[in-house]
């Protein structure tokens, strides 16, 4: 059988893309290939569950437009499928005077991105939203929420099957070749044929892209592990909803923050440290070949030279609970090291170009035989249906 489209990667972006294509063109034969024994096992299943508002992203960028559009689509989907979610709002807090201009920049971006209701709040109002939080200035963003993205992804998968799509688990893609306009996709179990390949392989998206492209891919995925602590049950009262710091505008991470979870509990984190393998969820997980590839990439070497102080601080917090606690105390001074228990970790697939740029926007590259989603970190989960729609539109143009 020759499929019209095969999507590589059963995370939330790949699933949303398949769902959008099947809804638009139920006649197309579509299959998803996932190397794991379940869907959404990596970035989708290991994130903080935040429904992002679109506050941080450059107006007009793919992140901004897809996050804001995806936000509304996600909420509608959750309502239709009866997936629990909650719009909690969040505060973004400047803890030092020097951060006030950056906070103002965030406010301006929020307004430009259409986030009605985003506002400066007084320190007295901050105490009403988050009684134990401290700072010198703060914003309140009403659109932010919480959800379980693993459950969202599984619901996408059910809808795909209901609409006639196919999902193959335990099918790791080993190679892609083209012959007479058809892609031959070799997996660990069999070879598939398709007219078009859509690569949503996340942490291995650059590797999969290189399988089908003759020219070298100009970006490499650098894996960054984000580690979390959880607040002890009797200390969860310190956080009502979501508390964020003012992020470093030059570094594509939001800084350690507090997140109330939809399933209960409060997470604190994450930091952002180089993972020693692409799926390195623990410090002890090392793949020397993958680590060497990251370290040898010219772009990463430039990033490391530019941000070595920031990187050292993140690494220090990874090995020092006291240092992690100190970072959290900037937002909640009452937090003590004894309040924190070990939480989970996620790995962010961060694309880095050869010149040392950590790609700030989503990156989608087309070729004759494939569409490659090469950078889709946060807020990809929030944006998933919008990104899926964007990729679906590119794919469907080939079947008109």
From TrEMBL:
Domain FAD dependent oxidoreductase per the UniProt entry, residue ranges: 4-394
Gene Ontology CC: one annotated term: cytoplasm
The keyword Nuclease is annotated on this UniProt entry: no
Record-linked NCBIfam families: PRK11728.1
Any one GO molecular-function label of the UniProt entry: (S)-2-hydroxyglutarate dehydrogenase activity
One Pfam family from the record: DAO
Transmembrane segments: none
InterPro entries: FAD-dep_OxRdtase (IPR006076), FAD/NAD-bd_sf (IPR036188)
Required co-factors: FAD
Name this protein carries in UniProt: L-2-hydroxyglutarate oxidase
Domain of life: Bacteria
Keyword Transit peptide recorded: no
The entry's keywords: FAD, Flavoprotein, Oxidoreductase
Organism of this sequence: Algoriphagus antarcticus
Sequence similarity: Belongs to the L2HGDH family.
């Amino acid at each position: 059988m020759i499929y019209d489209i095969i999507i590589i990667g059963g995370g939330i972006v790949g699933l949303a893309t398949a769902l959008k294509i099947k809804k638009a063109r139920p006649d197309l034969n579509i299959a998803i290939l996932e190397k794991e024994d379940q869907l959404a096992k990596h970035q989708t299943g290991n994130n903080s569950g935040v429904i992002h508002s679109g506050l941080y992203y450059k107006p007009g960028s793919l992140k901004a437009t897809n996050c804001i559009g995806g936000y509304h689509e996600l909420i509608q989907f959750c309502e239709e499928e009866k997936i629990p979610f909650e719009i909690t709002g969040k505060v973004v807090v400047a803890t030092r005077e020097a951060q006030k201009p950056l906070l103002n920049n965030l406010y301006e971006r929020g307004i430009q991105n259409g986030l009605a209701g985003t506002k400066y709040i007084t320190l007295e109002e901050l105490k009403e939203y988050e009684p134990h939080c401290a700072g010198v200035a703060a914003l309140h963003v009403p659109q932010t929420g919480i959800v379980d993205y693993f459950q969202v992804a599984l619901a996408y998968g059910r809808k795909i099957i209901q609409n006639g799509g196919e999902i193959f688990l335990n099918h790791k893609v080993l190679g892609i070749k083209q012959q007479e306009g058809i892609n031959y996709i070799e997996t660990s179990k069999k070879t598939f044929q398709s007219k078009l390949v859509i690569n949503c392989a996340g942490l291995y998206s650059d590797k999969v892209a290189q399988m089908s492209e003759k020219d070298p891919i100009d970006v490499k995925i650098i894996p960054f592990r984000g580690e979390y602590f959880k607040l002890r049950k009797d200390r969860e009262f310190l956080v009502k909803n979501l508390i964020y710091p003012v992020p470093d505008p030059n570094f594509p991470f939001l800084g350690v923050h507090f997140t109330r979870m939809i399933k209960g509990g409060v997470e604190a984190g994450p930091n952002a440290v180089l993972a020693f393998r692409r799926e390195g969820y623990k410090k002890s997980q090392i793949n020397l070949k993958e680590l060497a590839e990251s370290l040898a990439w010219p772009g990463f070497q430039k990033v490391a030279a530019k941000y070595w102080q920031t990187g050292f601080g993140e690494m220090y917090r990874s090995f020092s609970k006291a240092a992690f606690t100190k970072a959290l105390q900037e937002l909640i001074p009452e937090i003590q090291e004894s309040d924190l228990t070990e939480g989970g970790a996620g790995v962010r697939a961060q694309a880095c170009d050869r010149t040392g740029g950590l790609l700030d926007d989503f990156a989608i590259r087309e070729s004759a035989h494939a569409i490659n989603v090469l950078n889709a970190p946060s807020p990809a989960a929030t944006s998933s249906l919008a990104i899926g729609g964007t990729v679906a539109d590119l794919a469907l143009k080939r079947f008109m």
